[in-house]
Design a protein that fits this description.
With 140 residues, the protein is α/β, with parallel strands linked by helices. The chain is 50% helix and 22% strand. It contains four helices and five strands; from the N terminus they run βββαβαβαα. It has a five-stranded mixed beta sheet. Helix 1 packs across helix 2 and helix 3 crosses helix 4. The relative contact order is 0.23.
Length: 140
């Protein structure tokens, strides 16, 4: 199976990919006008048509206590619309702390602030997808 991972923000969407179902890697970051999720959907649908995933994994930004606040509600609604429009199943994956962990990884790798900003969403998408893949592996 082929997997597409997404870290949806208010102006960017980090994209990750796994061809094998074991290891996730970076693809790119899409940019769109602030909170313009119709444009984000169109851009992501282009990626879906190009890459043809069997499964999409979308980050779910839960609060630290596990509650689903406004950002999580936006992601849930976006996931439903993406699944409907793409015809590809969309799984939601808890994304708590992925951006902070990604920032730490990039700092340890001594990546400059300018380059960190460009890569952070992609790396967060990788972590979202990798968490999903790891959980699937433990279920098998």
């Amino acid at each position: 199976m082929k997997y597409l991972g997404l870290d949806l923000g208010s102006v960017t969407c980090g994209i990750s990919w796994s061809e094998t179902g074991f290891i996730a890697g970076t693809v790119k970051t899409l940019r769109f006008p602030k909170d313009d999720y119709d444009t984000a959907l169109d851009l992501i649908l282009e990626v879906v048509r190009e890459m043809k995933p069997d499964q999409i994994v979308l980050g779910l930004p839960l609060l630290e206590n596990g509650d689903a606040a406004e950002r999580a509600q936006i992601s849930l609604a976006f996931g439903k619309e993406l699944e409907k429009e793409s015809g590809v199943p969309v799984a939601m994956q808890d994304e708590r702390n992925t951006t902070q962990e990604s920032e730490e990884i990039l700092l340890m790798a001594d990546v400059s602030r300018r380059h960190r900003k460009k890569k952070i969403d992609q790396l967060a998408a990788v972590q979202i997808l990798q968490r999903y893949l790891d959980a699937q592996g433990s279920v098998k």
